[in-house]
Amino acid sequence: MIELGKKYKLKKIRGFENSDNEYYKVIGFYNFDTVICENTCGERFVFMEEFLIDPRKPDDIYSDLILERKE
Question: What is the pTM of this model?
Answer without folding.
Answer: 0.80
